[in-house]
Amino acid sequence: MTITIYHNPRCSKSRQTLQLLRDNGIEPRIIEYLKNPPDKKELGNILKMLGMEPRELMRKQENEYKKAGLDNPKLPRSEMISAMIQHPVLIERPIVVANNKAVIGRPPEKVLEII
Asked: Is 39-91 a domain of CATH 3.100.10.10?
């Protein structure tokens, strides 16, 4: 079973989630999503596994959110996904994918639900 973490090493919750996985004997595939953002298909799959719409996965306090006008409720889903790919800092973190399920590691213990 492959477990993937979309990780930001500068984020304490992301580091805690990675450590929790390792403490449970799991060495996940690590994707530093700020350097290697998911493509449209991959992000679409993640959203589907999370059961979320794009806006729910966005970090609304980031400058890019307001600069890009992403607070507009009429924006189409495709534009919001494109914005997250173009500005991966907007993607909430960490995301762990395992067993065709995904969860946001906030709190980190949430990942234990899918492994």
From this structure: no
